[in-house]
Design goal:
Layout lengths: L10 E4 L4 E6 L4 E6 L4 E6 L5 E7 L4 E6 L4 E6 L5 E6 L7 E4 L4 E6 L3 E6 L4 E7 L7 E4 L4 E6 L4 E6 L4 E7 L4 E9 L4 E8 L1 E7 L5 E6 L4 E7 L4 E6 L3 E8 L2 E9 L6 E5 L4 E6 L5 E6 L3
Antiparallel strand pairs: 1-2, 2-3, 3-4, 5-6, 6-7, 7-8, 9-10, 10-11, 11-12, 13-14, 14-15, 15-16, 17-18, 18-19, 19-20, 21-22, 22-23, 23-24, 25-26, 26-27
Length: about 290
């Protein structure tokens, strides 16, 4: 990514066209990469600390959440023209999209999850939290959202329909819970903690701890692949950890060295790819085949 310098934040993918969208926070751009060609095909400039990004297949739009001014922008994914704006108070961050309801969820500010209609580009709801949310996931099987709130050592449980906090799971140690993944079939939540670096598996219905494993430091992203039962973890400590989950056991099966500080990643199970962003001058992507 020859034009991208500084910190890289979240990514998303257009699976059909094999295009990745990368929030280049340190560069105030959104980098668009064609996986087939292996190159940047466009760069959306003039953003304000872009953090969250999501591709909306039903409207062929890109959604970008800006941490600097709180603005969330919609772009046509073919022309890259801006098509809408939703303003949030500040620090718009992680993004999740529910295709069934065409609703975008955005963590933002000093404590909120905003619901935005992908068709109308209007905010439709808001859930209040006690501090800024980091990683969160939709658990549609139980009608809830699980949210990491690291400043409160908390996982907040939000009723998806009412957008209200209905439970709080507070832990004294480990601390700094940032990324999260779910196994919605078997009701497991995988939480990445930084202090100390631990991968903790919880019962996603009760918050009870089931297992805990050491992992790479400075974790930023983790993913669960439902087909292979593997958990992929990327951290700034210089490794990708791969774990395998079976029943109540989680076992590390691989430890791949990476560039120090390369902590932002994206699992694309449909394409059997794992993508790691490496900050630098310039930044670059390393792409791993996970078909075996």
């Amino acid at each position: 990514m020859p034009g991208a310098k500084g910190r890289i934040d979240h990514m998303d993918v257009n699976v059909k066209d094999k295009v990745i969208y990368i929030a280049a926070l340190g560069n105030n751009t959104l980098e668009v990469i064609d996986l087939k060609a292996g190159k940047v095909i466009h760069s959306i400039k003039g953003l304000d600390e872009p953090q969250g990004v999501g591709y909306i297949p039903s409207t062929n739009e890109i959604f970008v959440a800006n941490g600097g001014n709180g603005d969330c922008y919609f772009y046509n994914a073919s022309t890259f023209e801006k098509t809408g704006t939703v303003h949030l108070s500040s620090d718009a961050d992680d993004v999740r999209y529910d295709a069934a309801t065409e609703t975008i969820y955005v963590g933002y500010g000093e404590g909120g999850i905003a619901a935005i209609n992908a068709r109308t580009h209007r905010q439709t709801g808001d859930a209040q939290l006690p501090a800024h949310p980091e990683g969160f996931q939709l658990d549609k099987a139980t009608g809830r959202i699980l949210v990491n709130v690291p400043d409160k050592n908390m996982i907040a449980v939000i009723d998806l329909r009412q957008l209200k906090v209905i439970d709080k799971w507070i832990r004294s140690s480990p601390a700094a819970n940032f990324p999260m993944a779910l196994d919605t079939v078997h009701h497991f939540a995988f939480i990445g903690y930084r202090h100390p670096a631990r991968l903790v598996m919880l019962d996603s219905k009760t918050g009870k701890e089931i297992s805990s494993n050491k992992m790479v430091s400075d974790i930023d992203d983790l993913y669960f692949d439902e087909d292979t039962k593997r958990i992929y973890v990327s951290g700034g400590g210089g490794y990708i950890n791969i774990f395998e989950q079976a029943n109540s056991q989680v076992k590390q099966i691989a430890n791949l060295p990476t560039k120090s500080g390369a902590r932002t990643s994206l699992l694309i199970p449909q394409l059997k790819l794992f993508v790691l962003a490496e900050r630098g001058n310039p930044a670059q992507l390393t792409i791993y085949n996970i078909s075996q």
